[in-house]
Amino acid sequence: MRQKLVAGNWKMHGSLAANQILLTALASQLERLNGMRSAVCVPFPYLAQAQTVLTGSCLAWGAQDVSQYEKGAYTGEVSASMLLEFGCRYVIVGHSERRALFGETDAVVAAKFAAALVAGLTPILCVGETLEERDAGRAESVIAQQLDAVVAESGMAGLAKSVIAYEPVWAIGTGKTASPAQAQAVHAFIRSKLAALDPDVAAALVIQYGGSVKAANAAELFAQPDIDGGLIGGASLDVDEFMAICHAAQG
Ligand code: 13P
């Protein structure tokens, strides 16, 4: 039985004062939930704060990106071992904003995924198609290509230690969620594609949905058989919204 995972992706939001209130409230309210896992992926400068506030709570934390390199002359980069020192369990790799705005290719994403695994972090691998790709009937082939790059580098043994997040680009920050049936169809495609390589790994793999998930639509998305929780952007910055989404993942 897969346990659902609800992870917040704060993106480039937050301040020390606002985070303190949000993290403290989430940590205390999440204590009463069980049967699901939760995490927040915060901007790098706030990892120490997350570690201080969340240590001992049931809310895990992580980062939103990681360098593909282990160490060295890579100005501005943050390594996987540095994230580990701040208690991170998760790191998002290949978010569509990084692919589209910062030029991350499938090869770079695969290298970052591998670097996270080597350090013992759990990568949350984001995949998803743009509206143009969907309209052209290419959603599945785009997602397959994104997955293939990672499988080629890390194998199904690597995938077994990761989380996948299906995030249709057209649903991110737009208020336009994929319908539960649309999302389920892609999740089932991802799972069956990976099952052809390793049925046990595919069956156990947590596949989150991301893209305008809110308290109002979380329950019906999470009720789909292949949707194992969510990667939450905007709604993860609001205690009540995030808590309601976590409750929906409890089933
Ligand atoms: P929104 O929930 O704000 O649409 O963002 C989704 C996302 O990109 C999570 O990684």
How is this structure best summarized?
The protein has 251 residues and is an alpha/beta fold. Helices cover 47% and strands 16% of the residues. It has one domain (8-236): Aldolase class I (TIM Barrel, Alpha-Beta Barrel), CATH 3.20.20.
Would you write up a description of this structure?
The protein is an alpha/beta fold. The protein has one domain: Aldolase class I (TIM Barrel, Alpha-Beta Barrel). It is 47% helix and 16% strand. The chain contains eleven helices and eight strands. It has an eight-stranded parallel β-barrel, surrounded by seven helices. Strand 3, helix 3 and strand 4 form a beta-alpha-beta unit. Helix 7 packs across helix 8. The two termini are 13 Å apart. Bound molecules: 1,3-dihydroxyacetonephosphate. 1,3-dihydroxyacetonephosphate (13P) binds next to strand 8. The site of 1,3-dihydroxyacetonephosphate has 14 residues, from strand 8.
For the structure shown, list the relevant keywords.
TIM Barrel, 11 helices, 8-stranded parallel barrel, 8 strands, alpha/beta, binds 1,3-dihydroxyacetonephosphate, 251 residues, globular
